[in-house]
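Aim 2 progress update. The chain analyzed this quarter is reproduced below.
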Amino acid sequence: MKIPPSILKRLYVKNSLENSEDGFSFKIKNALANGTAVSMSPVKVDGTEYPLDATVIKTSDGDIPAAEVSGGNPAPIKVGVEVVIHVTADPLSEGAHTIGIALETREIGEIAFEVDDEI
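Predicted structure tokens:
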């Protein structure tokens, strides 16, 4: 089952992109159906790919390093719950950015989309 990018973009919480002392983060909120992430691709911002070992998925169940997400160590994606994706890196510059998000779910396979947000 392929979900159109226009629907997937709704997963992104608008205006959630922000810098922190050790990098940047943004939020996603699942409004479709409960899901289970079994792998994650590196986050991309303005074409720059950030390594999985610098990315953490922060859920209500705890923090999961993105590099450790697998079929044996899945990340739940619950309906109605915001998830923070934090990337340890240099802070992003002020202004608009394009964010690329891709992961594989047990339920529907690969999902990938891009959104625009700003700091």
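The CA atoms of residues 17 and 98 lie 10 Å apart. The two ends are 34 Å apart (CA to CA). These observations will guide the mutagenesis experiments scheduled for the next reporting period.
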